């Protein structure tokens, strides 16, 4: 990588230009230049890279799949809304060199390295931005400009003192290590140092026992505190001498507090920590609506990138709308609108390649709407069975399940690496074993006017439409139609779509293998009128909720009210950032990001008395009190598109989402002109009646007394994942991506 590599930068099937790519000596920057002109086109920082995908895992690279083999292709994905960089190396070896090298830089094996990497990148980036004349030195005027860029409004005399203290060469400029000294003085954390000295007898170090006391008394670590203290010293203490003496310096203490172990998110819950052997209906499942759209619902762009992004984000329920296309090729798009189209086969191929990248958990409900013509449904059936599904009549967990006449659906553990189709089905599940039955296809009972009628029309087309063209007549044509319909029907096993005609009707006639789809409006009415019955229903059968057809801008409804009654498949527009997707990401960031979260016990009982409108109906201990001391913030980002020299006035708002009685929010005062190291020291307190369903959202905003506050950053997590004690909250951007090293420092207490 150090010598520079000639690769093709691909923007489309017709735009493929050769460029030289090189990793700079700082191992933090990659630049690329034109082969023809030798002119540098662009550069980017390693800290801007979110991930690297191998093979044809982008829409652009799939379009050139026949020209370039997957082993030579890779995609660099950036944080935020910056477009992907699609590249084709000269050989598979060169591609692997770049892929593995980049991954080692952006995904280091230990968090301390990440912390150090972020700090080093942050310092270098600011130095380069402030060094106006690019002479590798920084005078005091440039330092003053730097402070404005870094969201700091500092007294000039204090800034000059820091500058002079760092200027060891007395040259009137800062360079190299001098700037690092200046940066360290600027970022000194008095609140952390005070906490450190509270437990340190000499104020210079924490002995093994002193650190164990801190872990036990403040961080509420109740087992093996001395062993944990030793692990933390070995992991975070930068001085070899201190490590040998089993002590932790102030720098090591800060590194621990900024690490995964010092995060508000319980590190034990980041991996797969929940029981995965419960029935599917006992889990909340990360779900998307019209997954192929990456913009609005009327004229938006359809792209396989929508599927890739959703799957990478942990989504396990996707939607595919198939319609007749040119040359007998089914197309995926939002029917009766002006959205662009993508070939169905590309979607299927993409799902086959990317479905198990982040999770082995099943895709429990890939909604498949059919094309209308016979040849194209044949193409759809062939593509689905060839790329995604095992023979539906083959041996599998569902055969045992049917034979036992189980009262609940199979488990995620049993269905690992399986893709399940949600759709209409001919006959009963047993008929897939024994032959077709006489039951007519069911249609989802949607209450959304034209959208409901369209759903009914498409359901009819799926099984009953006559082939377009051909010379078959009479019984031969009918037999061919029935055979094809049965082949598609047989693919639907665990998620047969049925109309919802009330909870009593469902209890009498429905099965756990069936699923009903409800609009958000219909769901809200049921929540309001029959909350407890809704919870009971969702304890044994799947329910899917989808956005109103009026949300043409791809906006979202709040998923929380649907989760409050146990709805498993709450479909959201993943392409639209905002509070709703923050809640979704916050809930599903646990359990290995597998897209499944186990519902609390009182929501898995078919005879439960729980009703979200009456918290006292929940079985278990009484309300708990959540106390949050918001202490400080670090290196908060500037507001997008703000004026040059503008500095934010940050405040922190803590929002609680859960049952109606728990919904609340409180906020701190704003700190004027300091986004670099604001200090609040304010305590907020909340009472939670049903903590098992609560999500906590921390939001930082730039206060504006004349207009709406501007968004700065946020972090959302389930209450169950909170780690009490002194914790850092690493903020995310509006679209859910990391914005290192921006964070909040808080103290958390939970009492009954």
TrEMBL record:
Gene for this chain: Plcd4
Subcellular locations according to the entry: Cytoplasm; Endoplasmic reticulum; Membrane; Nucleus
High-level lineage: Eukaryota, Metazoa, Chordata, Craniata, Vertebrata
Cofactor(s) the protein needs: Ca(2+)
Membrane association type: Peripheral membrane protein
Chain residue ranges for the region called Disordered: 355-380, 429-454
Protein name: Phosphoinositide phospholipase C
One GO cellular component, as annotated: nucleus
Keywords tagged on the record: Calcium, Cytoplasm, Endoplasmic reticulum, Hydrolase, Lipid degradation, Lipid metabolism, Membrane, Metal-binding, Nucleus, Repeat, Transducer
Organism: Agelaius phoeniceus
Alphabetized InterPro entries for the sequence: C2_dom (IPR000008), C2_domain_sf (IPR035892), EF-hand-dom_pair (IPR011992), EF_Hand_1_Ca_BS (IPR018247), EF_hand_dom (IPR002048), PH-like_dom_sf (IPR011993), PH_domain (IPR001849), PI-PLC_fam (IPR001192)
């Amino acid at each position: 990588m150090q010598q520079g590599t000639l690769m093709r930068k691909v923007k489309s099937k017709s735009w493929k230009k050769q460029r030289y790519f090189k990793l700079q000596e700082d191992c933090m920057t990659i630049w690329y230049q034109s082969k023809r002109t030798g002119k540098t086109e662009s550069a980017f920082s390693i800290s801007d890279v979110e991930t690297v995908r191998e093979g044809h895992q982008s829409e652009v690279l799939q379009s050139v799949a026949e020209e370039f083999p997957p082993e030579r292709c890779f995609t660099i994905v950036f944080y935020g809304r910056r477009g992907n960089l699609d590249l084709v190396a000269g050989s598979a070896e060169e591609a692997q060199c770049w892929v593995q090298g980049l991954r080692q830089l952006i995904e280091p094996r230990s968090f301390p390295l990440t912390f150090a990497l972020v700090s080093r990148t942050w310092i270098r980036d600011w130095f380069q931005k402030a060094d106006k004349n690019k002479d590798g030195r920084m005078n005091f005027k440039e330092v003053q400009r730097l402070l404005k860029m870094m969201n700091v409004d500092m007294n000039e005399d204090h800034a000059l003192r820091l500058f002079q203290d760092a200027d060891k060469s007395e040259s009137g400029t800062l360079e190299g290590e001098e700037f690092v000294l200046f940066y360290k003085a600027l970022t000194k954390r008095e609140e952390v140092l005070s906490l450190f000295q509270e437990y340190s007898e000499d104020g210079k170090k924490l002995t093994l026992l002193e650190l164990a006391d801190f872990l036990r008394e403040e961080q509420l670590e109740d087992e093996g505190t001395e062993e944990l203290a030793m692990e933390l010293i070995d992991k975070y203490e930068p001085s070899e001498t201190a490590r040998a003496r089993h002590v932790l310096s102030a720098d090591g203490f800060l590194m621990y507090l900024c690490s995964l172990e010092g995060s508000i998110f319980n590190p034990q819950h980041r991996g797969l920590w929940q029981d995965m052997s419960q029935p599917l209906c006992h889990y909340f499942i990360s779900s998307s609506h019209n997954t192929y759209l990456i913009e609005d619902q009327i004229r938006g762009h359809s792209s396989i990138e929508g599927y890739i992004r959703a799957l990478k984000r942990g989504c396990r329920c996707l939607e595919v709308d198939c319609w007749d296309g040119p040359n007998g090729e089914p197309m995926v798009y939002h029917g009766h609108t002006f959205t662009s189209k993508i070939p169905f086969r590309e979607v299927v191929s993409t799902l086959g390649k990317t479905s198990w990248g982040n999770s082995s958990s099943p895709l429990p409900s890939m909604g498949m709407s059919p094309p209308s013509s016979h040849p194209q449904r044949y193409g759809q059936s062939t593509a689905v069975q060839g790329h995604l599904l095992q023979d539906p009549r083959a041996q599998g967990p569902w055969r045992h399940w049917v034979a036992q006449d189980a009262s609940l659906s199979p488990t995620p553990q049993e269905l690992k690496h399986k893709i399940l189709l949600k759709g209409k089905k001919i006959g009963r599940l047993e008929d897939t074993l024994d032959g077709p039955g006489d039951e007519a296809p069911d249609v989802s009972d949607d209450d959304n006017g034209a959208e409901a009628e369209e759903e009914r029309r498409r359901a009819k087309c799926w099984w009953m439409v006559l082939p377009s063209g051909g010379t078959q007549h009479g019984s031969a044509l009918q037999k061919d139609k029935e055979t094809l319909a049965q082949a598609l029907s047989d693919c639907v096993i665990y998620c047969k779509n049925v109309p919802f005609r009330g909870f009593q009707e469902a209890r009498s006639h429905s099965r756990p293998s069936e699923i009903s789809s409800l609009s958000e409006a219909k769901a809200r009415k049921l929540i309001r009128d029959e909350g407890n019955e809704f919870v009971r229903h969702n304890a044994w059968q799947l329910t899917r909720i989808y956005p109103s057809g009026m949300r043409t801008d791809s906006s979202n409804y709040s998923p929380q009210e649907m989760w409050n009654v146990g709805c498993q498949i709450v479909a959201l527009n993943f392409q639209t950032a905002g509070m709703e997707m923050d809640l979704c990401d916050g809930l599903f960031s646990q359990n290995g990001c597998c897209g499944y979260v186990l519902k609390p016990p009182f929501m898995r009982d078919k005879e439960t008395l729980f009703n979200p409108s009456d918290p006292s109906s929940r079985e278990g201990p009484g309300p708990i009190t959540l106390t949050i001391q918001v202490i400080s913030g670090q290196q908060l980002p500037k507001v997008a598109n703000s004026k040059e020299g503008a500095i934010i006035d940050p405040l922190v708002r803590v929002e609680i989402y859960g049952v109606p009685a728990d919904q609340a929010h409180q906020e701190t005062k704003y700190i004027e002109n300091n986004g670099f190291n604001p200090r609040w020291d304010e305590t907020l307190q909340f009472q939670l009646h049903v903590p098992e369903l609560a999500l906590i959202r921390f939001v930082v905003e730039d206060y504006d007394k004349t207009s709406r506050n501007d968004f700065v950053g946020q972090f959302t997590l389930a209450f169950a994942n909170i780690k009490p004690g002194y914790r850092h909250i690493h903020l995310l951007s509006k679209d859910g991506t990391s914005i290192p090293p921006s964070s909040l420092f808080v103290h958390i207490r939970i009492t009954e």
